[in-house]
Amino acid sequence: MRRELLAAVIEAQRAKRPVALVTVLEGGAQALMASEGLVAGDEDLAVDDVAAAAADAIGDDRCGCIETAHGQVFVQVLNPPLRMAIVGAVHISQALAPMAGLLGYEVTVIDPRRAFASADRFPDVRVVVEWPDDALRELAPDRRTAVITLTHDPKLDDPALAVALESTAFYIASLGSTRTHAGRVERLKQAGFDNADIARIHGPAGLPISARSPAEIATAILAQATQQLRGGNSS
Amino acid sequence: MSNDSDIFETAACWRDQGRGVALCTVVATWGSSPRAAGSQLLVDDKKSFLGSVSGGCIEGAVINEAVEVIADGKPRLLEFGVSDEQAWDVGLACGGKVRVFVERLE
After folding, report:
1. Number of structural domains found in chain B
2. DSSP 8-class letter at A121
3. What are the chain A neighbours of B106 within 8 Å (beta carbons)?
């Protein structure tokens, strides 16, 4: 790999720009492509079939080999990190935030209560002290974003869930017992969401592994988010 | 411990330190294999490494090839299949097959 191309890869990653690195396996010619076209590298590679394959791969977030006029080409998707918005700077969040970081998520913890959302409770985590719906709207969840509400307080959780349901977030979960969740479902119905919308919310949050401690509950939630992310994808 | 996104930054950092560096990338897998296409292993000329291309089964062999690639600059496409558990050959105990592209960082 040429040094200029590596610099372009790093620049795209820092700018959180979705790109794909394409490599001709015979000889090693390379180019960095965005869905709009060539970013850097070998211009000869920015032809129709390679450009289309790169754009598809970025959309599908899937690396793979394709046959082209240049021979076999490997397309490596370099999408920006997955994101996770955690509503509630509570005890579970203190475990969930660093564990999600290990899984590659860029984590934002949202809580308008200053006593909870203090920097010393969340070292090295981005904490936003705002109303959850405002903060979440600002964050603009997309299909590479997970939204998890953990406050147990309908005043904080419900508005955040409403914003999450209006987005394409791939995973939405809300902490609370089955009974708490039933109440939540009723309130969201009254707010105008239909059954299909509400079915997107995983509640109680997490896979049923009989989790008890905050870290165990975080494990259950991250396992469920991973299942949702990779579901139907055998690789 | 690293996320795959750290690999390129680290590659640039190692290169800036004057080390010879090779980037090894899983480009295809068949059957069960622990790391998916796109997984990467970064190797320097002293065999320091970061990341992975398998569950540890073939890293030793890939690192040896990477040192060759750092020396001659010629990219290589390596293929590893099922290991014979009775022999001391390099392969994947899981029964899968992987193809790894190894290139020098200029």
Report:
1. 1
2. G
3. 1-3
